[in-house]
From TrEMBL:
Protein name per the record: ABC transporter ATP-binding protein
Membrane topology classification: Multi-pass membrane protein
Principal location: membrane
Compartments where located: Cell membrane
Length: 601
């Protein structure tokens, strides 16, 4: 089959993939969240109607007060007092009902938006390439999916509805106040640019402070993730005190960041309150002067003061929730940073599905490096014959695992090509490639669940009979059936309740269930005892039948039956041949063999 190659440059790996995200403004955050809520327009419409009704009711109550002072008291209309009281109570009751309705609909819409955002964020993380995870800490990414999204939840549940309601009320009340007395209103509104400037000034500082808070939370999460999963190692080295000190350092940074943010807020709120009282003083003094000149009625002045409270409420409430808003903005920046990161490895628009493979793998003039480090492979050539077992041996750092990663396409080559049956890996879909490859490694990854669930991970549609058959072929059925709950036995986090050999046999059963045409064994028996290794070797014989296999091994006893062995040093092949041929050559392979099996004289 003719090899299918990509145009020059299309295979470049992007270790620095993604875009530099500019700090998101609060307005940008709100606009983006509103855009994400467009599909929930019915709930938004119901909430909006509730906001309009709330604004009208808040406008109505001061009017009732004004009418009482200017007409009922002056004209002594006793018969209307009960009507006024009933009107105020009715308006107050309706306010409560409408606020409940608006808050309920807004909460439902907000939770759906956050539900979608968190799921989209997780799906995007699944799309990102392995190099991205090489650069970023697991705890930090966990914090973005959990803590940062929760910060947005706090904003929606506590402040967003009130912000929208207050904004609508502000426009309506300001228009009415201008109509009643434009001079008094303009004097009052003159204080708002000052409040806006101070809010922007403090807002930047507070957001910067909360970015440090979010980062410190991520540091704490990362430390927790690492130490709790490695608790046995910590205890074995009696390092509990050391890790406690390191955790204290991280929580100390979190405390200091929170204190700084709290101090900024504590300084901001009194300044805003003072400016609000300046506005109240203007209304009281100038309004009283106009009333004494009989240019305003007493009722109008009282209503004006009531409207002043409604006009200033958005600013007052915004100052109260500024920390939530800025914390949400800082969290949104961190979420957006992930969402706008492009995967370094993606399927090209014309990528094809890999057909059923024979398993002929070829490296041709491959150069590869991890980022700015020196080249691991340089002008590298390698061929794995279909249906044969090929082994790679060599010193640590020779490039053996890198070769496996390039076959799986965890990374793309810098230059050259890797092909399977003539198909350049960059021209086929990642899903079809990886579904054709099974991996059994020394570091077995098992999930907290049952034995059956972990085996079924190789094929989500597998039946109970197929799971049992895979376990039988992997020499795992005996120990599984020895458990009281059999295949329904919970194995704990990372399979902690199983031995190393048992975990390895489960990984082989999982690989068997996926029925791959290509198998990669990466130090699969390196840390096992002799009995477990023998059982694994028997299971591997079943797994490898009729499949192309790449074996990476330090223990040379595991590869003596390989069809071809390649010896690597510094990313180059220095020897190749069968086990016995390489021993007779008395080269590097013979040196490695004698280190493991010294000849006694």
């Amino acid at each position: 089959m003719q090899e299918r190659r990509m145009p020059d440059g299309m295979g470049m790996r992007k270790f620095g993939s993604g875009v530099r995200v500019k700090p998101a403004s609060v307005w940008h955050m709100l606009v983006q969240m509103a855009a994400n809520a467009r599909s929930e327009w019915r709930g938004l419409l119901a909430a909006l109607i509730g906001m309009i009704v709330i604004s009208l009711l808040e406008f109505l109550i001061p009017q009732l007060t004004k009418y009482t002072i200017d007409h009922i008291i002056v004209e002594q209309l006793y018969g209307q007092l009960m009507l006024i009281g009933a009107g105020i109570l009715t308006a107050a009751a309706l306010l409560g009902v409408m606020r409940f309705i608006s808050a309920s609909f807004m909460a439902a819409v907000g939770q759906k938006v956050l539900f979608k955002l968190r799921n989209d964020l997780y799906r995007h993380l699944q799309r990102l390439d392995v190099a991205y995870y090489d650069r970023n800490r697991t705890g930090d990414l966990m914090s973005r999916v959990t803590n940062d999204v929760s910060m947005l939840q706090q904003l929606i549940s506590s402040g967003m509805l009130q912000l929208f309601t207050d904004s609508f009320t502000f426009v309506a009340i300001a228009a009415y106040m201008l109509w009643v007395d434009w001079r008094l209103t303009l004097l009052l509104l003159a204080t708002f640019p000052v409040m806006f400037f101070i809010t922007r000034l403090f807002g930047r500082s507070i957001r910067s402070a909360f970015r440090k808070v979010q980062q410190s939370v991520a540091d704490v999460s990362d430390h927790l993730q690492i130490t709790l999963t490695g608790i046995r190692m910590i205890k074995s080295f009696t390092a509990e005190g050391y890790e406690s000190e390191r955790f204290t350092e991280r929580t100390q940074r979190n405390r200091e960041a929170n204190v700084r943010a709290a101090r900024l807020r504590a300084a901001y709120e009194p300044i805003i309150d003072f400016i609000i009282y300046v506005g109240l003083a203007i209304v009281v003094v100038f309004g009283a002067w106009l009333t004494m000149r009989e240019e305003l009625t007493v009722g109008t002045l009282v209503a004006f003061i009531a409207y002043l409270r409604l006009l200033q409420n958005p600013v007052r409430r915004f100052s109260r929730i500024l920390n939530t808003v800025q914390q949400a903005a800082a969290a949104y920046e961190r979420i957006e940073e992930v969402m706008r990161t492009t995967p370094g490895i993606e399927d090209t628009p014309d990528a094809v599905e890999l057909p059923t493979v024979k398993g002929h793998i070829r490296f041709r003039d491959v150069t590869f490096s991890y980022g700015s480090d020196g080249a691991v492979l340089n002008g590298f050539d390698l061929e794995l014959a279909a249906g044969e077992v090929t082994a790679l041996v060599g010193s640590s750092g020779a490039g053996k695992t890198t070769i496996a990663h390039l076959i799986i396409r965890f990374y793309d080559v810098d230059s050259g090509s890797v092909t399977i049956d003539g198909y350049d890996l960059r021209n086929i879909t990642q899903q079809s490639l990886r579904s054709s490859i099974g991996i059994v490694s020394q570091d077995v990854i098992l999930f907290n669940g049952t034995i059956a669930e972990n085996i079924r991970y190789g094929n989500q549609n597998a039946s109970e009979e197929e799971i049992r058959a895979a376990a039988e072929a992997a020499n795992a059925a005996a120990f599984i059936e020895g458990f009281a709950n059999g295949y329904d036995t919970e194995i704990g986090e990372r399979g902690i309740k199983l031995s190393g050999g048992q975990k390895q046999r489960l990984s082989i059963a999982r690989a068997l269930l996926s029925d791959p045409r290509i198998i990669i064994l990466d130090e699969a028996t390196a840390s096992l005892d002799t009995e477990s290794e023998q059982l694994i070797q028997e299971a591997l014989q079943t797994l490898l039948q009729g499949r192309t296999c790449l074996v990476i091994a330090h223990r040379l006893s595991t590869i003596q039956r390989a069809d071809r062995i390649y010896v690597l040093e510094d990313g180059r092949i220095v020897e190749q041949g069968t086990h016995w041929a390489l021993l007779e050559r008395r080269g590097r392979y013979r040196e490695l063999y004698e280190l493991q099996f010294p000849v006694t004289t």
